[in-house]
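Hi, here's the filled form for the chain we discussed.

Project: internal
Contact: R.S.
Residues: 226
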Amino acid sequence: MARRSDRDSRVIEALVTEHGRTFAEEAGIKLRNTPQPLYRTLVMAVLLSARIRGSVAVASTRALYEAGMRDARRMADASWQQRVDALGEGGYRRYDERTATMLGEGAELLLERWGGDLRRMRDEADGDLDQLRSLLREIPGLGPAGVDIFLREVQQVWHEAAPWLDAKALQGAERLGLPKEPDHLVKLAGHTEPAVLAAALVRAALDKEIVEDVLRRAEERAENED
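And the returned structure, exactly as it came back:
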């Protein structure tokens, strides 16, 4: 049992060392519990929800920011064509027109219901994660997978959601031969933040080469220890 635990710890250490950064960080979002970074993370979750490469969704999140659509008000005030153009700049062309519409509608809803501030949505849920999930799903384009993506990222600042290791993260754990119990995985990861661990596991779920590389590195570490 100890050997298995040692092996799992080595795999997680190798995974986090090579791939331990959140998708928000990759998108250039300095996540804090303030309206703008929370909103940008929400937009990223909408984009990542589509059947499109994660790198394209992340690049498009950056492109929207660089085009000035940094919060719900600016997103709502932008024209539909401006949103389409920014998404295209990020390479998000397959779903750009539909997504541009959803982003506009989502921004309007967020402004009307919560003054453009996701912290007010959080306050409305009052610590009830099921209620928070339900409220998030009211945002156009944010289905169950998108809600999981958002909570996976914001658990860094919304601690009531931690540890949030969703189905995609647990799929990554399975591919690496790790246990699929969130609490066990977090314990094995030591001081690694759950959001960082979750993002690294998701990358393993999405990329076979990452799995192969991490397992190879973990095996090399084991040999060096022996």
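Let me know if anything looks off before we file it.
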